[in-house]
Write a sequence for this structure.
């Protein structure tokens, strides 16, 4: 899934922000996606910020139209009559020439032949894998490095909490991480203990900490308790292991860590101005792309 933002005004994507008429949000979008994202509430905003975005210019048959860029939406603000966005580009993807983009319209679900979608300023959400299309059309190099494999452990506190975790998993996968959870990978008839033991084969384990999760983990109750037995065994063998990353979605849950995860550096993914920065730090850490430690300089002369 990806965001498609199409504008007429040249140079729009060279600016710092853009305000789209609210009525043009989700134009040329399939009805099930309109039903899902139409409210543009906080949960929807976080999801849309977590999927890729294609920033394009209207194609009116010009042979030398402006190139499109690939990146992500950094911020979304709903204003009176409009939606304000800011964005950043993916430096690993070169600008896409207008003619090359035109050839990909069908694969990207751009309704050029049917409805002249490519000639109207709008924001659509498309059920297509943007990076896969770019790869198939030779606009993206095939990265041979296997993605980090991450198991997401959580408790079924509420339907809203389950949806939040599902969005987190989707956002991680959109950022090149092979994130695994029961809601995305578990199939009917599959052996539950075997599935939960997959965490042992993953590079990292994200533990979404809540009071309910803590109680079930400490009490060895249900699936959470079983998963935590695996965690406890791993930490017993290597107390300094960094495989397990506590994540909270409410600042109050900083006090709700399972016993053997207390005192560990956690990631705060609660709603607020720091969400995007904290999420990107998590992504960099999972990709082992943290900034190098500065070298030690020479001893000063005293």
């Amino acid at each position: 899934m990806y965001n498609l933002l199409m504008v007429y005004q040249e140079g729009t994507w060279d600016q710092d922000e853009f305000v789209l008429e609210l009525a043009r949000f989700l134009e040329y979008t399939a009805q099930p996606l309109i039903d899902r994202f139409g409210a543009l509430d906080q949960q929807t905003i976080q999801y849309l910020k977590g999927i890729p975005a294609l920033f394009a210019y209207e194609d009116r048959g010009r042979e030398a139209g402006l190139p499109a860029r690939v990146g992500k939406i950094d911020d979304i603000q709903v204003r009176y009559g409009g939606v304000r966005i800011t964005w950043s580009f993916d430096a690993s993807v070169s600008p896409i020439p207008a003619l090359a983009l035109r050839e990909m319209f069908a694969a990207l679900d751009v309704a050029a032949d049917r409805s002249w979608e490519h000639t109207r300023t709008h924001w659509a959400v498309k059920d297509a894998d943007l990076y896969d299309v770019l790869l198939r059309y030779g606009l993206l190099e095939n990265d041979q490095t296997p993605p980090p494999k991450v198991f997401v452990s959580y408790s079924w506190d509420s339907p809203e909490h389950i949806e939040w975790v599902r969005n987190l998993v989707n956002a991680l996968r959109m950022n090149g991480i092979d994130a695994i959870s029961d809601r995305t990978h578990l199939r009917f008839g599959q052996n539950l203990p075997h599935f939960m033991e997959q965490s042992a084969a993953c590079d990292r384990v994200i533990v979404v900490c809540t009071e309910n999760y803590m109680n079930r983990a400490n009490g060895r109750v249900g699936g959470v308790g079983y998963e935590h037995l695996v965690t406890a065994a791993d930490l017993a063998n290597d107390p300094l292991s960094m495989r397990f990353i506590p994540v909270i979605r409410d600042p109050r849950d900083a006090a709700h860590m399972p016993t053997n995860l207390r005192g560990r550096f956690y990631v705060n993914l609660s709603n607020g101005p720091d969400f995007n920065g904290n999420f990107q730090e998590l992504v960099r850490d999972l990709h082992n792309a943290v900034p190098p430690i500065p070298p030690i300089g020479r001893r000063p002369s005293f």
User: Anything to note?
Assistant: Residues 2-136 form one domain. The mean pLDDT is 86. DSSP finds eleven helices and eleven strands in the chain.
